[in-house]
């Protein structure tokens, strides 16, 4: 049997040692972690473009992603009224880099609507056509879901989508991320009716009734599908003022 | 259930004889952590939807069992008996965090996919089970081998289960499409590809299928090895 004194000393020394090593490792690897995280998000943004991406048949490696982001993507941040937000304003919102790509949608979600800022990415194709990519965020069955929606330059038609989720069920809700043919259904759908009213794009249980703004739901993932509906409805709506501004120019 | 020898060898050294070899090979079949000891089932259900995930998980668990066995064994004579479980937990938690930080830097995609399950290696019964049963009473070298053996025994079952589930659930192996149509195929053409009639079995992607697959593996394993059958 060891004395209490010995036990306390043993535990304290061990814990201190472990804490110091982990702290060093964590700070040392942080730049690599941040770079990986940024690349992961950039890839998700480009994946929304789908076949609209120049050379979309080629594999998207890390250098290519950075190259596209440097040369073909213009980043903007907007507020809920659709006005552009400049770099210093982004910085004052608590994003030290001042880059729209660093805007944390989860953090913005908690603010009142008037205080939120949203990122917009404008991709210029080699033929000069512009594609707008917007970010949306919502709730699935188990946890958060989010995505990027690419919109053609008529600002009404979807060019492609990419979704991601925190904890949807594999094979059911997780299909919103994994199932390419399901995501393909969104291409060409429009979120405005003929009179110019915002209608959003809907995931419909039991199959789409029209091919203008409805897509088939995933069997076994009704609630995730409803989550996607809500996310698109509120997520796209906040960008409508911005689209109107762009159109007027 | 445990048949580990509590004999302490006087000569430390990096001897690799028959006994040491058994430490490596025993957990692969006779004393497999999953099929015989039925430990670590939780993560075996969760990360076996694809072979790649299973492989990363197997490597991570092997690293943690081997190193935690090694470090615990190094300190086994100084660890106060009253708080040995806490000390073991500190060692395991430390190593799991190291593995998590490394994976996040090396393979971010796997880190994202395995997400919470890397952190949950801490609660994997195999790791602590080996520390209590083996490392506390054996030399560092033997403990290290025992950790590697148990990690591999866990990993091999994980990969078999994942191969079955990925093949029937997604029609692929290691993300390489084998049967059924790829989703690109469904988008671009209407013709069917080779074996395109196969439609993915969604049940195989869900957790319950891992139970079935593990149960079938246990069944086959025991029908070949009568020693494992409980007569009591």
Short description:
The complex is a heterodimer of chains A (249) and B (232). By secondary structure, chain A is α+β, with helices and mostly antiparallel strands.
Written account of the structure:
The complex is a heterodimer of chains A (249) and B (232). With 249 residues, chain A is an alpha+beta fold. Chain A has one domain (37-248). In chain A, 40% of the residues lie in helices and 20% in strands. Chain A has helices at 4-47, 62-71, 87-92, 105-109, 175-178, 180-184, 222-237, 240-248, and strands at residues 73-79, 84-85, 117-124, 130-139, 144-151, 158-165, 202-204, 214-216. Chain A has a 6-stranded antiparallel sheet. Chain A is globular and about 80 Å long. The mean pLDDT of chain A is 89. Chain B is 59% helix and 2% strand. The longest helix of chain B is centred in the C-terminal third of the chain and has 31 residues, at 140-170. In chain B, helix 1 packs parallel to helix 8, helix 3 runs parallel beside helix 7 (125-133) and helix 4 (84-106) packs across helix 5. Chain B has 10 helices and 2 strands. Chain B has a two-stranded antiparallel ribbon with strand order 1-2. Chain B has 232 residues and is mainly alpha-helical. Chain B starts with 17 loop residues before the first helix and ends in an 8-residue tail after the last helix. Chain A binds chain B through residues 1-2, 6-7, 10-11, 14-15, 18, 21-22, 25-26, 29, 32-33, 36-37, 39-40, 167, 169-172, 179-181, 184, 220, and chain B through 49, 78-83, 86-87, 90, 94, 97-98, 101-102, 104-105, 108-109, 112, 115, 169, 183-184, 186-187, 202, 205-206.
